[in-house]
Design a protein that fits this description.
Elements: E1 64-69, H1 75-92, E2 96-100, H2 105-113, E3 119-121, H3 124-134, E4 137-143, E5 149-150, E6 152-157, E7 172-175, H4 181-193, H5 198-201, E8 204-207, H6 211-219, E9 225-229, H7 230-239, H8 241-244, E10 247-252, E11 256-257, E12 261-263, H9 269-281, H10 286-294, E13 299-301, H11 309-323
Parallel strand pairs: 1-2, 1-3, 7-8, 7-9
Antiparallel strand pairs: 3-12, 4-12, 4-13, 5-11, 6-9, 6-10
Length: 324
C-alpha cells in the first residue's frame, strides 16, 4: 500500500477570512545563509518582516531575531496574529524581530536545517521528521487550556447528512499540508487502517495549505469534509462562532503532542538558553499575559521529544504498509 498521497487535484480558489487560530500552530505559510540571532550582520531575506516600533528598519541597528511560522493558518492571519508575540519575544532579547514565511511545512523545516532562522513554530509531524533527520530541538511547547496535546477533527458541513468518516467515501475532501499531522497524516492513517488510500477512498481531494482554509472550505461547501487541527477549530469557535457553526465535528482523533517551538541543535548555546528562559517565563509578566491570552495560550512549557512518539508510530506503521 502506498503511503504518499497524490498531489492536489484542485486548488482552492478562495482566500480564507483572516481570523486566528492559536499560535503555532502552535501551533503556524511560513529564510540566504543565516548567521545566528546573536550575529549582528545577518542579511535580510524575503517576505513579511516584523519591525520594532519607533523608527525605520534602516535606523534600527539592533541585531535581528529570525522567526518562521509553519503554514498552519493562512499567511494573512499568521502575520496579523503572530506579530505581537514575535515582536515581544525579540524585544525581550533586545533584538528586532524578522518574521519569515513559507507556503509548506517542508520549506520551514529546511530553513531550520540550513540555519536560516533562529527559531520556528512547526507542526508535530514535521518536528519528528526534523528531529530524526538533523536533531531539530524543542525549545518550548504551548500550554493551551491546561493541556499540551491536540487532536485531529474530521469536520463536515452542518447540514450534511454524513455522520461518520466512512460515509465520506466517494466525496470531496480537504487536507491541509502533505506533512501536517492532524491535517494529513492522521486521516491518511485512518484510511490505511481501512485498507484504503486517499485516491481509492475519495472521489476528489485537495490541499488547502492551512487549517483555516479547510474550515472555510467546509463552511462554504467547497468540499464535503476536511481534517483540521482541533486547536484552530476551537479558537474559531470563540473568535468567529458563525464560521464554525457552519461545520460539524464527526470524529475526534486520539491526543498528540502539541506543535512545538523549535531551534537547530547547533544554535549558539547562550542564545538558545536565553530564548528558552524568555519563553518559559513570558506568562509571568502582565503585558505578555495579555498577548498570550489573545492566542488562548496559558504559558509555554519545556516539552520533550517523547510527546511525539505516537506521531512516529503512525509514520512507521504507514512505512511498513508501503513496503508490503
Amino acid at each position: 500500500m502506498k503511503r504518499k498521497t497524490p498531489q492536489s487535484q484542485q486548488d482552492m480558489g478562495r482566500k480564507s477570512v483572516a481570523v486566528l487560530p492559536v499560535a503555532f500552530m502552535l501551533l503556524f505559510s511560513f529564510f540566504l545563509p543565516l548567521l545566528s540571532a546573536c550575529n549582528r550582520d545577518s542579511p535580510r531575506v524575503d517576505m513579511a518582516q516584523v519591525s520594532s516600533p519607533g523608527g525605520s528598519e534602516e535606523a534600527d541597528q539592533r541585531p535581528v531575531l529570525r522567526i518562521a511560522v509553519s503554514a498552519m493558518i493562512s499567511p494573512e492571519a499568521t502575520r496579523q496574529y503572530y506579530e505581537e508575540l514575535l515582536r515581544l519575544i525579540a524585544e525581550r532579547m533586545g533584538r528586532r524581530a524578522v518574521f519569515l514565511q513559507r507556503q509548506t511545512y517542508a520549506e520551514v523545516n529546511a530553513l531550520v536545517k540550513d540555519h536560516q532562522v533562529d527559531l520556528a513554530f512547526v507542526c508535530s509531524g514535521p518536528y519528528t521528521q526534523g528531529h530524526d533527520a538533523f536533531g531539530m530541538e524543542i525549545l518550548a511547547v504551548p500550554v493551551v487550556h491546561g493541556e499540551e496535546v491536540y487532536h485531529s477533527y474530521i469536520i463536515v458541513h452542518k447540514d450534511s447528512q454524513i455522520k461518520s468518516f466512512d460515509e465520506l467515501r466517494g466525496k470531496k475532501f480537504a487536507f491541509t499540508d502533505p506533512q501536517s499531522n492532524t491535517g494529513a497524516l492522521v486521516p491518511t492513517y485512518m484510511l490505511a487502517k481501512r485498507g484504503e488510500t486517499p485516491k481509492s477512498f475519495f472521489k476528489e481531494y485537495f490541499y488547502s495549505h492551512s487549517h483555516d482554509n479547510s474550515i472555510k472550505a467546509v463552511a462554504d461547501q467547497l468540499c464535503d469534509g476536511a481534517a483540521v487541527d482541533s486547536l484552530i477549530w476551537e479558537f474559531f469557535q470563540v473568535l468567529d462562532p458563525k464560521l464554525t457553526a457552519q461545520t460539524r465535528i464527526i470524529e475526534k482523533s486520539p491526543p498528540y503532542g502539541i506543535p512545538p517551538i523549535v531551534v537547530h541543535p547547533d544554535l549558539d548555546p547562550a542564545c538558545k538558553a536565553e530564548l528558552k528562559k524568555i519563553l518559559l517565563t513570558l506568562h509571568q509578566q502582565d503585558s505578555a499575559r495579555e498577548v498570550l491570552a489573545k492566542l488562548q495560550i496559558d504559558r509555554f512549557a519545556a516539552g520533550n521529544d517523547a510527546m511525539y512518539d505516537t506521531v512516529r508510530e503512525m509514520n512507521r506503521w504507514l512505512d511498513n504498509q508501503h513496503r508490503k
